[in-house]
Design goal:
With 137 residues, the protein is an alpha+beta fold. The chain is built from three helices and five strands, in the order ββαβββαα. 30% of the residues are buried. This is YKT6B protein.
Amino acid sequence: MRLYSLSVLYKGDPKVHLLKAAYDVSTFNFFQRSSVQEFMTFTSQLIVERSELGSRASVKEQEYLCHVYVRSDGLAGVVIADNEYPQRVCFTLLDKVLDEFSRQVSRIDWPSGSPATISYTALEGYLSKYQVWPLQT
C-alpha cells in the first residue's frame, strides 16, 4: 500500500491551478520520475476540473486510484495512491490537509498562488507519515 502524491489545488474560474504538492516517485526508475510526476500533476488538475464544488470522488486512472475532495470554497485536495490503500484514510488525510491549509494560507492568495509563492510546508511530512498503512505511532 502506497501513496504517490498529495496535492492542494484551487478550482477557480476559469481554470484549476496547483497551489502545493508533494510526490513520492522513489519506486519508479530514475529516468521515469519526472514524467510520472508530470502525469500526477496533470491528472490531479484534470480530476479537480471535472469535479463539482462540495464533492468527493475516487477515480481509477491506469493502475492508480485518485481520491479527490473539492470543498465548496474551491479549495481542493487530491491523493494518488495504489489500489490497495484504504479510501477512508485518503479522505481523512484530505480533510486534515485542506483544513490546515485554509488556516495557514490566506484565502486571498488561493486564486493567484503557485507552488513557488505559497508557503505551506506540511505536505511532505503528511505524505511520508501516511505512506505506510496501518500508521506507525
